[in-house]
């Protein structure tokens, strides 16, 4: 099977800032590929390059077998893009928006209309097609964005953080919509900050950080790298965190003093949970909350890079805060 998307040693700088630093990626035709990374990892930059909106400084990029620099026009005719900020018109109804996109892509009036109806039906929006988009819920709006990106029936679809900012219900709606694309032969590249999202939707995942690929594999392979499920404990008293950590023992513990939280590997799930409850009870350490859950992106990161993803996010937020203050 030929790869639908290839990025080979791709570099991109914005002035002094290295956004991509030798990024490698290979996505098989007809698969869903997750690009997982924290804020600032280079996800949007990579998507913009693959979708011909931005030129790389170095490295080779092909989409549907076509070099994105040399054959940008042909690439554009074969792709769909759902960006972080959607381009739908708030005042118009969902159907009108889709029709407008169809006309923009040179479908005739009749074909644009029938395509709009097809897509509304497919994404569960047929009943609300006349309603103005400003009255849509977050999940409905993202499904409409998704429909718009599919107007031309692209071979390759790029979804840049499709569920960021949605509530859990909206997220589930979008997940279902994306899943419904699978099997139609479309190749989907999806960026996300959530391991759970990549896990639910992707056949394979590339974890990126600092503009490079730090790991690649099927969701289960990546989870195995970080030791699978975790038990998550919130203590009532932060001062007993270290003591509790020592009692629980083992490697790969994550202690978070600010949130009074301990994360520990739980490969045997309920057995690990029961063990933790017993150990804490015997030492008279009170837990406010205790649960078994999937590893978070922070833990994947800690395990792959030796430092938490949150550290980086906090640094970025600090920079942004300073900039805002300077502007004020
Ligand atoms: N237009 C720009 N000018 C300068 N720096 C940028 C620009 N766009 C992105 N960056 C920086 O490049 C890095 C990668 O950004 P981006 O691709 O948006 O990451 P992500 O989508 O993973 O959050 C970040 O450090 C970001 O601050
Ligand atoms: Mg982004």
Automatic annotation (TrEMBL):
Superkingdom of this protein's organism: Bacteria
Chain segments annotated as coiled-coil in the UniProt record: none
Gene Ontology MF, one: ABC-type xenobiotic transporter activity
Residues spanning the signal sequence: none
Keywords: Antibiotic resistance, ATP-binding, Cell membrane, Membrane, Nucleotide-binding, Translocase, Transport
GO CC, any one term: plasma membrane
Top-tier EC class: translocase
Domain ABC transporter: start-end pairs: 5-235
Location, primary (coarse class): membrane
Presence of keyword Transmembrane: no
Membrane topology category: Peripheral membrane protein
Pfam families registered for this protein in UniProt: ABC_tran
EC number: 7.6.2.2
Family named by the database record: Belongs to the ABC transporter superfamily. Drug exporter-1 (DrugE1) (TC 3.A.1.105) family.
Matching PANTHER family: ABC TRANSPORTER ATP-BINDING PROTEIN (PTHR42711), DOXORUBICIN RESISTANCE ATP-BINDING PROTEIN DRRA (PTHR42711:SF19)
Name recorded for this polypeptide: ABC-type xenobiotic transporter
Organism: Streptomyces griseus subsp. griseus (strain JCM 4626 / CBS 651.72 / NBRC 13350 / KCC S-0626 / ISP 5235)
């Amino acid at each position: 099977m030929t790869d639908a998307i290839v990025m080979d040693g791709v570099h991109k700088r914005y002035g002094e800032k290295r956004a991509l630093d030798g990024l490698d990626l290979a996505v098989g035709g007809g698969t869903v590929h997750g690009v997982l990374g924290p804020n600032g990892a280079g996800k949007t930059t990579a998507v913009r390059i693959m979708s011909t909106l931005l030129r790389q400084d170095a490295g080779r990029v092909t989409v549907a077998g076509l070099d994105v620099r040399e054959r940008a026009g042909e690439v554009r005719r074969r792709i769909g893009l759902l960006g972080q900020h959607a381009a739908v018109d708030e005042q118009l109804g969902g159907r009108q928006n889709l029709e407008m996109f169809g006309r923009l892509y040179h479908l005739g009036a009749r074909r644009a209309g029938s395509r709009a109806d097809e897509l509304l039906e497919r994404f569960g929006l047929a009943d609300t097609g006349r309603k103005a988009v400003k009255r849509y819920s977050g999940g409905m709006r993202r499904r409409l964005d998704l429909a718009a990106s599919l107007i031309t029936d692209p071979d390759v679809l790029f979804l840049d953080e499709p569920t960021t900012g949605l509530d859990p219900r909206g997220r589930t709606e979008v997940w279902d919509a994306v899943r419904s694309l699978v099997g139609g032969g479309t190749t989907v590249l999806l960026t996300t900050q959530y391991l759970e999202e990549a896990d639910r939707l992707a056949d394979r995942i590339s974890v990126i950080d600092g503009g490079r690929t730090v790991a690649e594999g099927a969701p289960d392979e990546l989870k195995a790298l970080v030791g699978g499920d975790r038990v998550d404990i919130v203590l009532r008293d932060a001062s007993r965190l270290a003591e509790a950590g020592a009692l629980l023992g083992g490697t790969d513990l994550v202690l978070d003093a600010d949130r009074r939280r301990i994360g520990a590997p739980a490969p045997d799930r309920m057995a690990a949970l029961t063990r933790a409850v017993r150990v804490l009870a015997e030492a008279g350490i009170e837990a406010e909350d205790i649960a078994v859950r999937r590893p978070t992106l922070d833990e994947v990161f800690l395990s792959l890079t030796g430092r938490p993803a949150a550290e980086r996010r906090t640094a970025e937020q600090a920079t942004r805060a300073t900039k805002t203050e300077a502007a004020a």
